[in-house]
Amino acid sequence: MKITSSNKGFSGPKFPRKPQIKHHTSRLAFNFSFLTGMTQYSLKKSNKNVNNKIRLKLLEKITALSEEDKIIILNRSKEQGLELMPEEEVRLRVNQEFKDTGRYDECDDNYWVFRLSKKGRVIGKISDNIFYILAVDPKFDLYKH
User: Fold this and answer.
1) What are residue 54's DSSP bridge partners?
2) How many CA atoms within 13 Å lie on the side-chain side of 21?
3) What distance lies between CA 15 and its chain's CA centroid?
4) pLDDT for 34-50, tens place per residue?
5) How far is CA 126 from CA 55, 78, 133, in A?
6) Given the DSSP bridges, would you call strands 83-85 and 29-31 parallel, antiparallel or unpaired?
7) Beta strands of 37-120 (E only): which ranges?
8) Which of 7, 76, 101, 142 is placed for a possible disulfide with 80 were both Cys, Cβ 3.0 to 4.6 Å?
9) What does the mean pLDDT of the chain come to?
10) Domains in the chain: boundaries
11) Nearest to residue 134, comparing CAs of 86, 109, 98?
């Protein structure tokens, strides 16, 4: 690039204008691909602890959580948003495929929990805006309450 001078003073280099990037809000997306193999914390039909009322409540909750920005959800109380749970406090056998694919390493160090009112808790990990649902805990026994 060439710097030129004129009667009006110096003129700096001309840089091409960058196209304006449209930024989207960051909303959570939910992934069920790596639910634990532990039947009592899965959504399998053989899990007698998870009934249709719990499944419906789960659907309602993820719908509500996916309709707002992640930053808003993280600033809510644990009853309405998400709760951070240290990994060492949760007794969960993580799906091995979740670890083998590298997703486990891409996620935050701790677990995130959201409540299904008095019907249970959902435990997962977050990577960017993806909430990997790893377990559904209707018996409230995956961590101390």
Assistant:
1) none
2) 4
3) 39
4) 999 999 999 998 999 99
5) 21, 16, 9
6) unpaired
7) 83-85, 111-115
8) 76
9) 89
10) 28-137
11) 98
